[in-house]
What we know:
By secondary structure, this protein is α/β, with parallel strands linked by helices. The protein has 15 helices and twelve strands.
Amino acid sequence: MKRLLKAGIFEAARWSGLTPALRRIFAGRAAILMFHEIQQDCRSELMAGTSVDVFEHALRWLRQEGWEIVSLEACIERLAMDPEPRRYAVLTFDDGYRDNVSTALPILERNNAPFTMYVPTGALTRTLQSWWLGLRELFRSKDKVAIDAMGVRFCCPDLDSKASALSKVSEWIHEDYHRVAMLAPTFRKAGLSLSALNESYFLDERALQDLARHPLASIGGHTGSHSALACLDVLSARAEMADNRTYLEDLLQRPVRHIAYPYGNSRACGPREERLAEEVGFLTAVTARHGQVVDCKPNHFALPRIGVGGQFDSRAAFEGRMNGIQSAVHMLLGRA
Length: 336
C-alpha cells in the first residue's frame, strides 16, 4: 500500500509545480544510481529489473536537467574540489548481469556515460547462491508454489500475481538474511539449479575481461559469495571483501578500487563493514541506503544510492527520486 501511495505522490508532484521547491530542500550535489538488470521484457521477468524505457528515460532526463554523468572517482574528486553547485550523477550496476552488456551498454555508449559494475566472485564461477533468481524461476514456471520455510502456499496463475508473490517472499528474506539457506530444500524439490541460472543470467570471465577494457567501464568488488556481511564474523567478512578483490584483480589485470556491500541496507552492513572495506584497500564503498550525496566530503565507505527498477518503478518515480521527492515522502510516510 505504501508503494502505491508513494507512486501516486510522485505523479502528483510531477504535475503540481512543487518539484522546484522540493528539489531545493531535499536534492543533493551528487546522486549514485543503482541498477541491476536492464530488461527488454520486464513483465516476463516479473518486474525484477529496470525496463529499457525507464533506463533510457533516466539518461535523457539527467542530461536535460543538467546532471553531468561521471565516473565514481571523478565524482568524489569534483565534490571535494569544485566550489560550483554542479550536480553529478554516477551510474552503477550490481552483480554482473549479461543484459548490462547486451542491452544497457549500447545505450550507455550512445550517451557517452561512464559506469561501474560491481561483481561478486560467485557470479563468474557459477557458485553464487542466487536465491532471487531461484525464486523468480520458481514463480515463473509454476502457478502454485509452496515456500515451506514460510509456511505459505501461493496460487499465482498470472504474471501480476507471480510478481506479487515473488515480492512477498523476497521481503521475507530481506527481513533476516539467515533465511537464505532455508530456501535450499524448496529449490531442490522443484529441480532448480542455481548454477544453471547463474550461467544464464551472469557474465562469464571472458565477457567481464572484455568489458573491463571498455573506456566507459570500471569494475568494482561485490564480495565473494554475496552474503550479508553483517551476518558473518569479522574474519569471514574481511575475507569476503579481500578475496573478491584479489580474484578480480588477477582476472582483469587492473586495480579494483571500489566495492558495493551486498544488499547494502542496515541489516547487511554498518560501521564494522566500513572499517573493513578501508582496511582491505578500497577507496569507496556504496550501500543501498536511499539518498543523494549532499556533503562535499562524504563518508567514502557508506555512500548512499538511488535504486532504479522494480515492480512499481516509472519515469515519474525516477524523477521524484532525483528531485528529492522520495526523501520528502520518506519523512511523511516513514522509511519502511
